[in-house]
Amino acid sequence: MRASKNLAQYRQALQEAVGALGRDDIGVGEVRLIRDGVLAVTFQRGTHQDVREIPVDTLQRRDTAHQAVTEAIRPLSKEVEREVMERA
Questions:
Q1: What is the Cα–Cα distance from 10 to 21, expressed in whole angstroms?
Q2: What pTM did the predictor assign?
Q3: Where are the domains of the chain?
Q4: Spatial contact of 26 and 18, defined as CB atoms under 8 Å apart
């Protein structure tokens, strides 16, 4: 039970960081602990999704959480942007 409560808290922190970056178009999907102190987080936008590893420590402070999320969603944002440019 404790692990699922922690995962829910990490997911909430990730969602808050995404929202604070003004990226409400990106959702936080599955969040799971893959090894001690490291999460595998699925970020989603439309039909696109990307799984990134994020150290749990980075979620303890707002500034480091924002930085970690910014770096994590960058590849997804570029993929979506590339698709939009190809369709234009």
A1: 17
A2: 0.87
A3: 2-87
A4: yes
Q: What is the CATH number of domain 2-87?
A: 3.30.160
Q: Percent of the chain beyond pLDDT 90?
A: 73
Q: How confident is the model at residue 3 (pLDDT cuts 50, 70, 90)?
A: low
One-letter amino acid of 10: Y
For the chain, the distance separating the N- and C-terminal CA atoms, rounded to the nearest angstrom, is 48
What residue type is assigned to position 85 of the chain? Answer: M
User: Which long-range contacts link 20-29 to residues 24+ away (Cβ below 8 Å)?
Assistant: 20/62, 20/66, 21/66, 21/69, 21/70, 21/73, 23/73, 23/77, 26/73, 26/76, 26/77
Give the chain as a 3 state SS string. Answer: CHHHHHHHHHHHHHHHHHHHCCCCCCEEEEEEEEECCEEEEEEEECCEEEEEEEEHHHHCCHHHHHHHHHHHHHHHHHHHHHHHHHHC
